Amino acid sequence: MYASREDIGYDFGDDSKVGSKPIKPNPNIDGGWAWMIVLSSFLVHILIMGSQMALGILNMEWLEEFNQSRGLTAWVSSLSMGITLIVGPFIGLFISMCGCRTTAIIGGMLNALGWILSAYASNVHYLFLTFGVTAGIGSGMVYLPAVVMVGQYFQKRRALAQGLSTTGTGFGAFLMTALLKYLCTEFGWRNAMFIQGAISLNLCVCGALMRPLSPKDLHEKYVVRSDSEENRAKALSHSTETIKSNGVLSEEPEKKEEVANEEVLGSVQHIEIGGKSGSGRSMYGLRLLKSVSQLTVTVRKGFALWYSSYFGAASLFTNRVFVAFIIWALFAYSSFVIPFIHLPEIVKQYNLSRQDNVFPLTSIIAIVHIFGKVILGIISDLPCISTWNVFLVANFTLVTCILTLPLMQTYIGLAVVCALIGFSSGYFSLMPVVTEDLVGTKHLANAYGIIICANGISALFGPPFAGWIYDITQKYDFSFYIAGLLYMVGIIFLLIQPCIQKKQPREKSTEEAQV
């Protein structure tokens, strides 16, 4: 097990320039404006993830309106939730080129447009395009920046900050369910979606609050982080050997490209100064050329970072532990979604509808899930506790609950297991922290985009797979067993890869000593 990416021995060069002089940290890191970033992310989770968890209200309205099968109609919600996560890698490209603030503001407008256009839907297939695709892409463009910005602004309290911001999902599930139910009752589902679209414009406000940190501030964060860790020198030398063995691209090409870009802009500026005696039209053309050149440089630099993260020599996929993390993500999210989808049927099968109507089991999961995120975040931020160990323990608890849930046939037993599922699934707030420990803040947007993409695939195909298993066996037990076993495979990958990653440099050093 490991506590950070230095312990694994894999780095992307973010911390390669650690100065010996103490640098005063930015007051906005772990304080000040950082808490406004948490508030912004909290509201994003309410408006996006909370709304998606409340789509059951609209799903019933769509069934009555369009008279289509339940399976076809359910794809509207599945597309919206899946696309929000699946587009993560492409949103990483936008963040690299435009920054988190611009990406989030554009995403907020696109999400609102999807809701508003869906109010004029004439059939389910129309909703696939407007709500599933348009609103889904918009949601993804806001969701990923909200997570990345919290990771950039926090160092000592990263887990707690992520836990507080992601509790918006639980609060949003309650608030948006009540809001959509009221709006559909009073104004009809079409006007409800129109109003919800107007409300979603507040995502643009949340995006405007995502004030970017300067490169100097990010460098100061790295220095503070390195000073607080033990055995830093040993970890850095260990990371350097691993980088060379993996063929990670150095920073020299980036420096050369920056020099070339500066020469282009300098030449344009020189022409502009030399042409001051020219006509006003010529000056306007030169300014326009300069603006286009600056935009081209920004786009090229952002695309180069995105491309190198995925396909270059410094690809994220050269990190074996990160690849194991992706495999885990492919199986993990469906294990959390399946209980939400199939618990009502299990309750009906065991004749527990009377007790469930008083206090639904899905509500127990949602409520405890909120506390789980905060408590696990607080525990992970303790100096003597490893975030990775907390993450693994929570995963083991969740997979155990998934495997034992079909064995419970009483309401009390199911309620206890659901409470444990809700609490242990609070590890979702630790996923950005673990990802940042693996790849660093510089690559967090692209790396976390891949992780949520894997989660989106899991959420998109997990519940239909469970339903297919039920159609074959006429039991939900096997759905939970298969999901739990696949989930366990992902956890085993997480356990094995850190050991292999540590063992390889040791074997290499032994061979060198023998030579």
TrEMBL record:
Membrane topology label: Multi-pass membrane protein
Domain spans labelled Major facilitator superfamily (MFS) profile: 37-502
Pfam families: MFS_1 (PF07690)
Protein name: MOT14 protein
Keyword check for Transmembrane helix: yes
Residue intervals passing through the bilayer: 33-55, 75-95, 102-120, 126-148, 160-180, 192-210, 321-341, 361-379, 386-405, 411-434, 446-466, 478-496
SUPFAM superfamilies: MFS general substrate transporter (SSF103473)
PANTHER family: MONOCARBOXYLATE TRANSPORTER, MONOCARBOXYLATE TRANSPORTER 14
Signal sequence interval, chain numbering: none
InterPro entries per record: MFS, MFS_dom, MFS_trans_sf, Proton-linked_MCT
Subcellular location per the Swiss-Prot or TrEMBL entry: Membrane
GO MF entries: monocarboxylic acid transmembrane transporter activity
Gene Ontology terms: cellular component: membrane
Gene name per UniProt: Slc16a14
Keywords: Membrane, Transmembrane, Transmembrane helix
Native source organism of the sequence: Ptilorrhoa leucosticta
Domain of life: Eukaryota
